[in-house]
Task: structure prediction
Amino acid sequence: MSKHSSIDSFRDLRPAAANGLYDRRAFLKGGTAFATAIGGYTLSETLNAQSLVDDPWSASAGTPTGPYEARSRFENSVVRTMTNPNGEPRSQQSRTPHHMLDGTFTPNGLHFVISRSGPPDIDPDQHRLAIHGLVKQPLIFTLDSLMRYPMVSRMAFVECGGNSAPMWSPEPLDANVQALHGLVSSAEWSGVMLSTLLEEAGIEPSAKWLIAEGSDSLALHRSVPLSKALDDAMIAMYQNGERLMPGNGYPMRLLLPGWEGNMNVKWLRRIELVDQPAMSIYEARTYAPILPGGKAYQFYFLQEVKSFITHPSPGLLLSDHGFYEISGIAYSANGRISKVMVSADGGESWAEAELQAPVLPKAFTRFRIPWQWDGGPAVLQSRAWDEAGYVQPTRSEIVAARGEASRVPNVNGFPSQHYNGPTSWQVNQTGEVKHVYA
Amino acid sequence: MSKHSSIDSFRDLRPAAANGLYDRRAFLKGGTAFATAIGGYTLSETLNAQSLVDDPWSASAGTPTGPYEARSRFENSVVRTMTNPNGEPRSQQSRTPHHMLDGTFTPNGLHFVISRSGPPDIDPDQHRLAIHGLVKQPLIFTLDSLMRYPMVSRMAFVECGGNSAPMWSPEPLDANVQALHGLVSSAEWSGVMLSTLLEEAGIEPSAKWLIAEGSDSLALHRSVPLSKALDDAMIAMYQNGERLMPGNGYPMRLLLPGWEGNMNVKWLRRIELVDQPAMSIYEARTYAPILPGGKAYQFYFLQEVKSFITHPSPGLLLSDHGFYEISGIAYSANGRISKVMVSADGGESWAEAELQAPVLPKAFTRFRIPWQWDGGPAVLQSRAWDEAGYVQPTRSEIVAARGEASRVPNVNGFPSQHYNGPTSWQVNQTGEVKHVYA
Result:
């Protein structure tokens, strides 16, 4: 089979930005524009007689896939990277491999997990959810009783406040998108609106917050303003169509769309309405890093607008010059993504990416843009806007506001959090991709 | 814990249809309407001191969830039902348990599968897709080369032409929704538009059809009109964010949104452009049942508008009188679902269900409606409309057009296909649900 190259075959199309970025609409539906652009056969090879010979796996019958289907053995390397895999008595993190996925949400086996004392092995028939405190009528729910309530389904991302923390490093890192941004995932959650249950219990006028508590062994708990609880908070029981994964709170969790992951309390067993926050360790210390001026970054719950490129990214080798699609993920706690701009020259020039429809609020939005790599150096970046008008800050802006991890260490030894600046990938002439600051 | 009952607590709300159906908007956002409706605590129980005692699983640390997370052991009964589980040399079917799922698509482990000779164990690095026949330039693609093309993601249902075939039975069946309708599922598929590849190859004017062929051992192949190939056909490589499941065509399949499942050729290895259909066994015989007038139901590809109720349904016991949510699934090859009507009295009166947003074309739409079960007999039905103006026929209408399986057997012994009439569930006074004709 012969292989053709056509580095300059985009010449008939108008560039949208420097260094090979093309108009996002050029190839939307495929068609002649793309055929013209790649000059007929840039990426494919010509067919010959050998191409139509049977492969070995076509020679005999295959194997049934079982009552609950497992993925192909050839996908075994698509996994979460884990800290503390043996479950020693400290936190454990599992990071989503965004560079090996596509589409607009995260499959359940690969959703990120942080657990502080390991996911408990809960019998769903024995589990109870209590609502008490400043309510007119304290209530307790079984999973079966919750299943009778009006339900809703929605896509929503969940992101750890510490996701992207390596980006506070003063020097770029030998790290891929999974290591840098693997503590965010998105899924369709189905369950009962928390407002339904709170209205049934009856809210006392003095109630301003709630304390949500899990049934993990350290009873992780966080304070949530009542306004969020009555807005879009959900008691989620299903994740992507089936019951929650153990690491994501089986059999029920609190979902606070767009808010700091740690507050989306898993293995939820208790909601107590109170008149002030509990000042739990997570809100008073863990997720309250010290800012350069000496104040704490406390009670800031939103995971603000952010984006990163997943393809190409470190670990994905560009095998040849020519056409590639640049794609990535954008999301915001403030609603829908309204625009993503992409640069191939380290931020000198920008072109608007296509957003995969439907664009949903507080959920992953996949962006895509055509790119012709000429074999020279390139630095790829993305920058997202949301419908509330927010935009990702530059790295220098956010570092000025919060400090870098090594220069301004948190008093508790934790790095800073809530990084939502851009991520830069440098493509070198051999097609390797690495993390840089640009 | 005391339990409260409030059978008549819906009295403050206006009924939308007879036998307990309420307005779909009544409880959309929870709030006071629902609290009023259920009289304070119909479904929940009151809290006492015992409610806040630790459960045994809270007493010690849990177990990390692993690099690719598995679901809870308490979910082991949520499985596909399988014919021919040992893979004897005939077809094998795995049916989706819709009554145990919620949300708007099917998780990968539970997507239905029909395979004629078992899923092959394909090495994705060795697999090739050829496009040849009436093209200007025959082409061959690796998975890696396809990954460089412009990609799209979309939700789409896939349904076997034989799904719901038991509904042709002249007598109702002792069967649940999985047995009756388990050969349809929905997922987000990501891949390359087939039109992109065909335009690159260059279509000869004489080409009117294509033959798509799989690399399974019997090389399953189907003819597809070129108009569909250039409309919304996709070479799908990702299913719900990760690579395709083995049973769904790993590493690539043809996706023809809304069209007969068998045509969505899995393990796709070859697309040949031709000037007339191949008359393969599946189009000439298997999916060409004989109609009452003696003609064959052939080359009819659309899976037309359909809906069924998943909750309540057989196997889900109604444990008590009072509030339940009725929910189910609707879909159509002709675009978006525009309306679903639900009856609780066997089709005498109807109320409009709420459609879970976003409503997407050729994908599952979850519908929901509030229902107060007074403990008396009820027959639940749904009926869907699509944006093209089609509506599910009544059972008598479709039986008149196609015949019942036992009275008009297909010459090949197959039952009739493409049933899209309504499904009726009878609730008896003990809360058991069974299939009836009504």
